[in-house]
Amino acid sequence: MDMDPFQMFDDWFAEACAREPSDPNAMALATATPEGLPSVRIVLLKDHGPDGFTFYTNKQSRKGEELAANAHAALAFHWKSTYKQVRITGRIEHVDDATADAYFASRGRDKQLAATASDQSRPLPSRDIFLERIAALEEDYPEGDLPRPAHWGGFRLIPDAIEFWEGTPERMHHRILFTRTGSGWQEGLLYP
Q: Is residue 66 a contact partner of residue 39, using CB atoms and an 8 Å limit?
């Protein structure tokens, strides 16, 4: 077969971007505590390529703390419009500060305000508290971009395995698994 998993992902992602009605970059991110207690949620893919798959979040959130304690994770993309799915597992590394700063600056002001004001995943006694924090930030930064808060940054999943699943109405699905080897990728088929 001799396919490149990153080129295959690019092709499938481009198709999803053309056909998926909402958020083709949405992916399920699964993390786990050091004891193995799993947690999954949807995040947005912001960059991808041979160096990995990048997303941004509050590093003090549940996912951020789990990634700090157990730097392995899994991603899953499911595009109903194309009847395709990609699953990726691997290790996590932090995106460098310059890259995180640049991405934070590219976000809309409302998103910058929300990310700065949020103690993501922590209990919130009243929504008014969150809105008051946003109002205070608007006073402190009346115009222009906010600086990226120290608690917010990027993570990159460096894949060890990438599985491509393509469904058929007869349930004779097609699955290809790429597993990282020392010099590249080993490719094989899986039963549906």
A: yes
Residue range 88-141, pLDDT digits in tens: 999 999 999 999 999 999 999 999 999 999 998 889 999 999 999 999 999 999
Q: Does any domain span residue 170?
A: yes
* Radius of gyration for the alpha carbons in the chain, expressed in angstroms and rounded: 19
Number of domains in the chain: 1
Q: Which of 122, 127, 171, 180 is catalytic?
A: 171
Please check whether residue 85 lies inside any domain of the structure: yes
Better-predicted residue by pLDDT, 83 or 3: 83
Question: Is 183 inside any structural domain?
Answer: yes
Task: Please give the DSSP secondary-structure letter assigned to residue 13.
Answer: H
- 82 vs 6, 15, 20, 113, CA distance in Å? 18, 8, 8, 35
With a pLDDT cut of 90, the percent of the chain lying above it is 90
What is the Cβ-side half-sphere exposure of residue 83, based on CA atoms within 13 angstroms? 9
What's the CATH code of the domain at 55?
Answer: 2.30.110.10
**Active site includes 180?**
no
**In terms of DSSP bridges, do strands 52-58 and 152-166 run parallel, antiparallel, or are they unpaired?**
antiparallel
Domain with 91 in it: 5-106+150-190
57 belongs to a structural domain: yes
